[in-house]
Amino acid sequence: MKIKKSPGEKAFDVFNYVILAILALLCVVPFIHLLALSFSSAAAANAGKVGLWPVQPTLASYQYAFQTPNFVRAFGITVLRVVLGVSLNLILLVLTAYPLSKRNDELPGRTWISWFFIIPMFIGGGLIPTYLVVSATHLNNTIFALIIPGAVSVYNVMILLNFFRQTPKELEESARMDGASQIICLVKIYLPLAVPCLATLFVFCTVGHWNEWFSGMIYMSSVRNYPLMTYLQKVISQTNSLTDPSQIELMAKISSKTFQAAQIIIATLPILVVYPFMQRYFVQGMTLGAMKG
């Protein structure tokens, strides 16, 4: 039987929809403007004529972006960083969370080990000690300086740990009675059941690696080694990033505004493409792996 809503509840629903619609527009409109700007001509962009639709449409900004060696190199570095970094993140998360999800009688000293991971969540070593460690291990100007320092996120460990704890123990006990080892239990029982949670952590790690820019600025001394977001931060902070004299004809069709907009759109698209495929796991994984009080 369908419950009839009162006038107050209907008014509250309308109010919620209006507020959510306004917030959605505030998020989408700037991106649409940026997209229109990237496809517009230099004259229209400089004159401030571009709104939510391209003026004098052209692909010159995208053509110039893909012909810019530093941009293409930075894009490739970020793709490599995501592939290596996310793979390392997920492997270490599983190898850390699975033992910590066991009882104290199964893993002696589990409580002390857990505190070893939890304390750094609240008390960090600081930027200078971290930089000194990275320098002492000769990771500067390498892809590993972008991956290894943040390889294990304690927050993500806690999400996966709580997910493993909610897995019925009877499944593992029956497998152990049949002679299965801990590795077999992890691979055959826990990981298949943890697909929603792992998909959520995959999104977290992917977005984190793709959008992170500060470590590239700290650990890389050359623009050639910059990841994409560090390169974009440098480009956007410049008043004029069009400096290639070999492409004068193409540069005449674009401006710094359209070129920067095109680079930002290119950098944003991969995440926009990946997220819809992972969205169905996202809420489920966050709910199942939620931390309990």
From TrEMBL:
Task: Specify the domain of life of the species encoding this protein.
Answer: Bacteria
Where in the cell? Cell membrane
Q: Can you name this protein? A: Carbohydrate ABC transporter permease
**TM annotation in the entry:** 71-100, 112-131, 143-164, 185-210, 259-278
The UniProt entry's GO CC annotations, sorted and at most eight, read:
plasma membrane
List, alphabetically, the CDD domains matched: TM_PBP2
Which source organism?
Answer: Bianquea renquensis
**What PROSITE patterns does the record point to?**
ABC_TM1
InterPro entries in UniProt: MetI-like, MetI-like_sf
Q: Which UniProt keywords apply?
A: Cell membrane, Membrane, Transmembrane, Transmembrane helix, Transport
